[in-house]
Each structure stands twice: as C-alpha cells, then as structure tokens.
Amino acid sequence: MKKILLVLLVTFPFITFSQSKKITLNEAIKIARQKSPDYKTNLNKNQSSYWRFKNYKASFLPQLELSATLPEFSNYTKRITNDLGEDIFVNQNQSRIEGNLSLSQNIPYTGGTLSVGSSLERVDIYGNNENTGYSVVPFSLSYSQNSIFYNPFKWNKKIEPLIYEESKRDFIENMEQISLNTCSRYFDLLNAQTQLDIAEKNLSNQDTLFQIAKGRFRMGKIAENDLLQMELALLNSKNKLTTVSISLKKASQDFARYLELDSENILLEIPNKLSLFTVDVEKAMAEAQNNRKAVIEFRRRRLESEKELARVKGSNKLTLGLNANFGISQQGDVFDELYQNYNKQQYFSLSVGLPIFDWGVSKSRRKMAEANLDLLNNNIEQEKQAFEQEIYLHTLNWSNQREFLLTSEKAQEIGNKRYDITKKRYILGKISITDLNLAQEEKDKAAVQYLNSLQKFWVDYYILRKLTLYDFLNDKKITSDAIFNE
To answer: What residues form DSSP beta bridges with 67?
Structure first.
C-alpha cells in the first residue's frame, strides 16, 4: 500500500503537467501586454491623457453656445425701493422667455476671451395691466481679461504638450514594466516547477537507496544508524515534496491571475539565451535622454513652478482687469418693430488694484514662490544625477550577467555529474551516506543557483529596456507600435 501511494505521489505531478498548457516567456509577456490588470490600468491612464490634450486643443477653438430660459414664471409679492427711496411691496405676476446665442474665442496671445453674441427676451405681465414686452440685442461684441500682467494661456501652451508627450512615454515605460513584472512571475513559477521536479527525483532516489540500505542492513553490511539516517532522508524528501507542491500551487495561481488565464495548469519552458549583443554606456545614456519620460517631466515641473511664480508676480503689485462690450439693442411692445432704429450698447471697464500696505504679504508670496522654484531646480539636478547613475551602473552590470549565467550553468553540469558518480559509488559501498547527502545538496543548490542566475539575466534585460526605451537586441527604439508587434 505504501509503495502504491509513493508511486501516485511521484507520478501525479507528471500526469498533471502532461495535460498542462505550455507557455514560453515571450508568449507570457505578449499575453500580459493584452490582458493583465496592469495593462488595463495603463490603457485607461493613456486614454485619460489623450482626452485631456484634446480638451486643451479644443479650448482654443471657437465655442458656439445656445442658452435659453423656457420659461420662467413668477407670482409672488416682493419688496422694492421706489423713486422716493421708500421700500414698498408689489405683486409680481409674470413670465419670461429668453434665448442667447454666443460665439467665444480664447486669445492665447493676450490671455483674454473675445465673444460675439445675440439675445432675445420676452416678458408677459398678467393681471389687471396685462402687457407684453420685448428686448433684443442683435449684435454684441465683448472682450474680457482678468489680468494684463499674467497670461495663463501662454503657460498652458508650453506645459500641456509636455504633459501629453510625457503620458505617451509613460505608457511605453509602463508596458515595459508589465514585461518586467511578467518576467518575475514567470520565473517564480518556473522556480517552483523546478523545485518540484528536484523534489520528485530526490524522493525517487531516496526510496531506491532506502530499499538498498534495508537489504544491506539485513545482511549486516551497514549499521542501524546508517539505515535510520537513510530513512530520515526519505521522510525529509516526502516533506519537501509536500512543501514545494504548495508553493507551486500559489505561484500557479498568481501567474494565471496576472495573465487572466482560464487554467492554472501551466508548464513553463526555460527561456533560450539571448543572442550576443553589447551595450555602450554612451549609447544607453543618449537613448534614455531621448526616450524616457523623466526628461520631459523635469522640463514640465520646472515650467509649472515658473508659471506659479509668474502668477504670483502678476497679482502681487499692480493688477489690471479689462472688460469691454460694444453692440446694439432695442426694446418695445411690438415684435416687428424691434429690428429698426437700434440703440447703441457700449460698456468699458478697467479695474485697478494696488496694495499700499499689506504687512509684507505680497513680498512673502513672491519670495516663497522663488524659493520653491530654487528648491525644485535643486531637486531636479539631484534626480538627473540619480537618473544618469542608474543607467550607467545597470549598463555596466549587464555586461557581467552573461558571464555569471555561463558560470552557473557550468556549476549545474558539474553538480549533476558529481552526484551521479557519488550515487554509483554509494551503491557499490565505497562511500558513506554523508558523502552522498552532501553531493545531493550541492547538486540541488547548483540547480537553483543556475535558475536564479537565469532569472537575474532576463530581469536585467527588461530593466535595461525600460531604462532606455531602446531595444539593443534589434537596435531600434521601443515604440507603442513596436511593443504590440513583438
């Protein structure tokens, strides 16, 4: 019964894997770029940025608007002040219909808004003195500007295109981050599958060696202590198989959930080695400067701080506001007579504000804005240095990763060969169980070390792509189109 259970325990994972879907690293990354939660979040952010830029561009186009009151009715008593300065109560029983059509245009060179409008209004009075009145403004031209010394449109014209360009680069960087996340999850699952494979083989070997040890013990060739040590190794192998099986289940669930796969029964393939290619530090730095969003972000943050300083300066001392209107109008009781003998409609207002004594409030605002700009410039310079250092160090580190991988691969081959030799010598009775266990531990350690080196190799490759947004393998810039066509 124990032998049947052992056979099922060993062979069941192979039966499961034989029915599993095989996925390569490139296939996993391609799926993640289309279905993962990170991709959906990235896509939503990109669409939001796109429509923000479209809204900004549309704000400088003519805006045609129709507004109407259809109708407004009132029947109540209200208090008013008559020509003698006395407050009296009168009854208001009337309805009003009003319509306005306006065409407005923001002027980026001045910071104001120019608009052309037309309106028509009708008022019906009810009660003992029923009457109907009309008012029409066929044409009205107006211009308004809140501040002559501060033009927000000028600053937005500099900043908004940078925000949009930053969002496009951010989309590409996030797609590369998805590749990096997928790579990490891929190797987590691959590591769990490899650990399971090692545990299954070790269990099978330990069971075989335990059966041999029992025969030797009955023949009096080994002591009971050696038999107990072999049995203990078998029990530890069973426990190890149970532990790694649980770890494999968790890694399979995480991987399937991230890629939104229908099944958790996935068998991963060990990725092939990348073709040989070199990365020049100066080339990597130049591509990062041209492609990364951080470079655009530095410029955008500096402009936003300069915009705030300009706003504070524009409102700190003399402030001038301008409102002007020119048009024609007419009022009367007969609708057909409205569009003749127009009255002029003119309005002009220039508001002036000048703080005389404000206890240093204006000066402190300006100084605070200047200090914030200086602080931002210092922070940006430090971030630039960290940005360049990260690329420099990672490029140098990448050059050593292939050597580490080759060394680990060679160590794995040696570990497997040494264990096979040690196992044969133990069966022949030429070495002790301690030597065999040591060889097995070194073999397992070498296998795990190789897989870790392989993971570090691929992770560093995708980090290099993200840091530079450049595909050094194919010698081309990484774009959104290239990402989906890989």
So the answer is: 100
Over residues 432-454, the pLDDT tens digits come to 777 878 888 888 888 888 888 88
258 CB contacts (<8 Å, ≥6 apart)? 32, 36, 37, 181, 182, 185
Q: Identify the helix (H) or strand (E) that includes residue 351.
A: strand 343-353
> Distance between CA 51 and CA 295 in Å, rounded?
23
Minimal CA–CA distance to 183: which of 259, 288, 289?
259
CA max distance for the chain: 133
Q: For 251-300, what is each residue's pLDDT tens digit?
A: 999 999 999 988 888 888 888 877 778 888 899 999 999 999 999 999 99
Strands 266-268 and 21-23: parallel
Put the strands of the sheet holding 319-332 in their side by side order.
63-81, 87-107, 112-125, 131-145, 319-332, 343-353
One DSSP character per residue, 105-135 reads EEETTTTEEEEEEEEEEEEEE-STT-EEEEE
**pLDDT single digits (tens) 4-17:** 444 444 444 444 44
Question: Residue 64 class from Cβ within 10 Å (0-12 exposed, 13-18 middle, 19+ buried)?
Answer: exposed
Q: Which residues contact 119 (CB under 8 A, 6 or more apart)?
A: 98, 99, 100, 101, 135, 136, 137, 140
Sign of CA pseudo-dihedral 456, 462, 464, 466: negative
Bridge partners (DSSP) listed for residue 227: none
Query: What mean pLDDT is predicted for residues 464-484?
Result: 85
pLDDT digits (tens, 9 = 90+) for 24-33: 999 999 999 9
Structure tokens at 223: 């002591």
Amino acid code (one letter) for 35:
K
